[in-house]
Amino acid sequence: MDDRSDDHDIEVEGGIHAYERKISGILDDGSVGFQQPLLARNRKNTTSQIAIVGANTCPIESLDYEYFQAFFAFAGCNLILATAAASLCAFIAPAAAGSGIPEVKAYLNGIDAYSILAPSTLFVKIFGSIFGVAAGFVVGKEGPMVHTGACIANLLGQGGSRKYKLTWKWLRFFKNDRDRRDLITCGAAAGVAAAFRAPVGGVLFALEEAASWWRSALLWRTFFTTAVVAVVLRTLIELCRSGKCGLFGKGGLIMFDVNSGPVLYSTPDLLAVVFLGVVGGVLGSLYNYLVDIVLRTYALINERGPGFKVMLVMAVSILSSCCAFGLPWISQCTPCPIGSEGKCPSVGRSGIYKSFQCPPNHYNDLSSLLLNTNDDAIRSLFTSRSENEFQISTLAMFFVFVYCLGIITYGIAIPSGLFIPVILAGASYGRLVGRLLGPVSQLDVGLFSLLGAASFLGGTMRMTVSLCVILLELTNNLLMLPLVMLVLLISKTVADCFNKGVYDQIVTMKGLPYMEDHAEPYMRNLMAKDVVAGPLLSFSRVEKVGVIWQALKMTSHNGFPVIDEPPFTEASELCGIALRSHLLVLLQGKRFSKQKTTFGSQILRSCKARDFAKAGLGKGLKIDDLVISDEEMEMYVDLHPITNTSPYTVLETLSLAKAAILFRQLGLRHLCVVPKTPGRPPIVGILTRHDFMPEHVLGLYPHIDPLK
């Protein structure tokens, strides 16, 4: 018969008086022991017996045996989940690694990078994000959800996937650049709305951060999309209210409700808010700088192959598990708050008070942050229940943990978002400042935590309006609007003095030719003709098939000027631009002639408009797919039916700054530069986005000062 009691009695040598003395740090023999007792918990039965062991009463081997078992189980589960996420990213879809927001932002700027929105990327993004968050990494799911929404929108915009037997004919009407870009913008907004349950914040995020071109029609489309997201979320939350869906729906549409009544603040409080904004800007810019260094270091490791990517993820997983399980041992136990009976500590269930190795009616505040879900940790930091719920040392250690591990984790081969790590770090140092300024401030520590999160978000991501609305929708506290606005503006202004936002830095580091909405200062001193790359390769209106095939084979250009020449015109003149994809379709159809004559009407009758629709990712024709005989190489083809006869053109003497603004605002891929004087060839060159990149311009003119 087992003699262990069912009411969790505590057995202590010397009785209850010795137990009380050990709790206070004094042993029976008068020597100083542990301030926090070491507890060995027997989990072999449903009942539990806690033996409190002094510094000189029990061998350490029997003391820590089960804690080692617990650690290996904890770290092992994390390692398995991390390896699964890394394997998906490394071997199936490398483009799914990271946040995905920089890639979506680049696509909406006109950069059609390979596989960033492919169906395989969507699959890995969903399951890799699940495994990565469950593995205990300091990452969020919000960035991957934005990428997921964009991938779904792209799948619809290209009419499905022929590779995976998922096609819908009615979606062919969206097979053009503008409509597909609009769909992906709506998808990104839907991702933010679903991640934060913030429909208006999703619209503003798409407007402020994601989209490069905005118009009124796109506004109501994104608003409609996020409204549908809110309705669907509300319906699912109601269905899951019974608890059958786990933690989903906890808190309803308001994830972190911190509405604690009237918000009163005075001049010292405003000075504290300014201080938070400055600190958030400095810490945010430092965070971006360190993330950039880590990403460049990881890039050297990841270049060695998928195996090295997986090993890097495993190393970071082990480090994260060691920190999460080891740091709470140096934290003291705290008595449960009054009125939290039944909730503190939370044993065998989800909750915000973790007992770890503490006695009954006590909790370990650091483990309550480290060994909890990210949402519960944020709720705990935002709460106004008790100022002393977390010790100052705990908040400092947790901030250092999240700040450092957030930097180390971002960049490994798993889907990972930055929102949650940044919110956690900002909320911890905001609550820390609130504790320190408690005697002179009227704001409670929960509101300081919210302002700290806002300041760190502004310092890292450099967004203002969308972040402000997202935070207000997250916390249901409209009374904090003036202070949140102030701290966001200050943190962004301070951080902009040091470097760019984190997403802009990642776009630059990946070498994506992103067009800013303004021209660089030195571009005012250059003309369009100064940066045109040569030699120019052009086609005649009726061109020999072999010439076209050779040009497509030897170059990677996506646009070619078409020139009308005698005998079809009196003098050479620019006919327009023919796209590479259209030329490939034309050659595949083999609509050739042995005579050098115009026969465009025959081509128009034999072709359909959808033949030239934009193909999905990886579906387009390649030059190697064409089979053309030697006899066909000597034949001619009329390019006029597939030529854009009204391209945008600028004079060669136009300021490069004006050309860059025109290129960006019109969303162009090619801009023709024509001569100012007659008697010369009808086109000087073609400007693409690469010609406006600072690396290209300063490479041509190294003597130019980039700041002038």
TrEMBL record:
<dbReference type="InterPro" id="IPR002251">
    <property type="entry name" value="Cl_channel_pln"/>
</dbReference>
<feature type="transmembrane region" description="Helical">
    <location>
        <begin position="113"/>
        <end position="139"/>
    </location>
</feature>
<comment type="similarity">
    <text>Belongs to the chloride channel (TC 2.A.49) family.</text>
</comment>
<keyword id="KW-0406">Ion transport</keyword>
<keyword id="KW-0677">Repeat</keyword>
<keyword id="KW-0407">Ion channel</keyword>
<keyword id="KW-0472">Membrane</keyword>
<keyword id="KW-0812">Transmembrane</keyword>
<feature type="transmembrane region" description="Helical">
    <location>
        <begin position="270"/>
        <end position="290"/>
    </location>
</feature>
<dbReference type="InterPro" id="IPR001807">
    <property type="entry name" value="ClC"/>
</dbReference>
<keyword id="KW-0851">Voltage-gated channel</keyword>
<dbReference type="Pfam" id="PF00654">
    <property type="entry name" value="Voltage_CLC"/>
</dbReference>
<feature type="transmembrane region" description="Helical">
    <location>
        <begin position="310"/>
        <end position="330"/>
    </location>
</feature>
<keyword id="KW-0813">Transport</keyword>
<feature type="domain" description="CBS">
    <location>
        <begin position="642"/>
        <end position="706"/>
    </location>
</feature>
<feature type="transmembrane region" description="Helical">
    <location>
        <begin position="436"/>
        <end position="457"/>
    </location>
</feature>
<keyword id="KW-0868">Chloride</keyword>
<protein>
    <recommendedName>
        <fullName>Chloride channel protein</fullName>
    </recommendedName>
</protein>
<feature type="transmembrane region" description="Helical">
    <location>
        <begin position="395"/>
        <end position="424"/>
    </location>
</feature>
<feature type="transmembrane region" description="Helical">
    <location>
        <begin position="70"/>
        <end position="93"/>
    </location>
</feature>
<feature type="transmembrane region" description="Helical">
    <location>
        <begin position="463"/>
        <end position="490"/>
    </location>
</feature>
<keyword id="KW-0869">Chloride channel</keyword>
<keyword id="KW-1133">Transmembrane helix</keyword>
<dbReference type="InterPro" id="IPR046342">
    <property type="entry name" value="CBS_dom_sf"/>
</dbReference>
<dbReference type="InterPro" id="IPR014743">
    <property type="entry name" value="Cl-channel_core"/>
</dbReference>
<feature type="transmembrane region" description="Helical">
    <location>
        <begin position="183"/>
        <end position="207"/>
    </location>
</feature>
<dbReference type="InterPro" id="IPR051280">
    <property type="entry name" value="Cl-channel/antiporter"/>
</dbReference>
<dbReference type="InterPro" id="IPR000644">
    <property type="entry name" value="CBS_dom"/>
</dbReference>
<feature type="transmembrane region" description="Helical">
    <location>
        <begin position="213"/>
        <end position="233"/>
    </location>
</feature>
<dbReference type="Pfam" id="PF00571">
    <property type="entry name" value="CBS"/>
</dbReference>
<keyword id="KW-0129">CBS domain</keyword>
